[in-house]
Amino acid sequence: MKKFFIILIILGLGALAFYWYTNGRFFAKDVCPDGPDCAPTSPVTEQPKDDHEETFSIDNVTRATVVVMDGQKTVELSRTGTDRTLHAQFSMDDIPTPGSVALLEEQAIYQSGTGDIFIPSVANYGGSGSFVSIDLFSQEGNAAIIQKDSYALGDRVLVRKLMTEGSDAVYTLRVQFLDRKKDEPMAAEPTVLKELTVSVADHQFGMGNIQTLSSASPDTYKDMIVVDTPKKGESVSSPLTVRGKARGQWYFEGTFPVVVTDWDGKIIGEGYGEAKGGEWMTPEYVPFTGTISFTVPSDTSYRCCPLTGLFASLLSQKFSVSLAEASHASSPYRRGTIIFRKSNASDLREHDDAFEVPVVFQ
């Protein structure tokens, strides 16, 4: 009898040892029910986290590395002093006056599929020029970005909007910006709307093309509409009176929509251009007028941008205005667009058309 109990004890100890050695997997059921006593049939492996799924925020970046002077100089940008934008000064042996570079952070966009970050930059090399480029960055850690490539736009141009389209492997970056007309002095306000189209792959820019979107005559579009007021680049306030002439095809029932958008394309006011005299069923030009009320968001009044310390100072010298006035005028947050839309009673997209007039809000 004693031998029997001894054998049972030995078998029990062996079973416990086997259970401990296999971590209970041998005794687990094929279908694992929910509960604290369930032993999983296979270990749970945590999937690696895709950094590209994170939402990028330029506000979290405290350092940026860029290359200037055609690759001759690497500059570390940081947020120092009272100007909290990413900026830096640099010097070189062949430049008597220190240069400077700053990022136009408010226009940064993020391509989530690739992790590419696009930010306009403005660089000064000690002279009167302020050279604007579109820089392509990748994120290095949580608080730093490093430049992978750069595409030069021009001297003292004004970037309006950045957009991406296409797949993640090879996609397209579009940049709309304002430039000057041919033979205009550099002191002239940029009023000609242009668009850069450039391919992007493997964190590098490909071939690019710049085309002019607005007519050579800045206030005329397709021989269909002529806008007398406001002029391109004009400073405007609400209520805004618009005047001009449009061919009869632009109207429907004697009117066409007029829309006011802010710097980011958000609609802040709507109204109509109305044919004067009531006669609009003609292929000829018909005068129009209209009044549009709009509200500029309060946080755009005097938001700080990198142009305050660089481009604004140049504007103040060129146009003999105060630094505050130049900073206010150069801020992209103060810029908007008056859109004169062709009436489209059919709602068919192929009949859509519009003429855009860039303005500055007072």
Descriptive overview:
It is a single chain. By secondary structure, this protein is mainly beta. It has two domains: 55-212, no CATH class; 220-361, Immunoglobulin-like (Sandwich), CATH 2.60.40. The protein has three helices and 21 strands. The strands form three sheets. The protein has a nine-stranded mixed β-sheet with strand order 13-14-16-19-18-17-20-21-15, with no helix packed on it. Strands 1, 2, 3, 4, 5, 6, 7 and 8 form an eight-stranded mixed β-sheet that branches. Helix 2 packs across helix 3. The relative contact order is 0.10.
CA-atom Rg in angstroms:
31 Å
What is the averaged pLDDT score?
80
Instruction: Quickly count the helices.
Output: 3
C-alpha end-to-end distance: 105 Å
Sheet with the most strands, sense and barrel status: 9 strands, mixed
What key phrases describe this protein's structure?
Immunoglobulin-like; mainly beta; 2 domains; 362 residues; 9-stranded mixed sheet; 3 helices; extended
Summarize the structure.
The chain folds into 2 domains: 55-212, no CATH class; 220-361, Immunoglobulin-like. Helices cover 10% and strands 41% of the residues. It contains 3 helices and 21 strands.
List the helices and strands and how they pair.
Elements: H1 2-22, E1 63-68, E2 73-78, E3 87-90, E4 99-103, E5 109-111, E6 116-124, E7 131-140, E8 144-155, E9 158-166, E10 170-179, E11 192-201, E12 204-212, E13 220-221, E14 225-229, E15 235-236, E16 240-247, E17 255-261, E18 267-275, E19 285-292, H2 311-319, H3 323-330, E20 335-341, E21 354-361
Parallel strand pairs: 1-8, 15-21
Antiparallel strand pairs: 1-2, 3-4, 4-6, 5-6, 6-7, 7-8, 9-10, 10-11, 11-12, 13-14, 14-16, 16-19, 17-18, 17-20, 18-19, 20-21
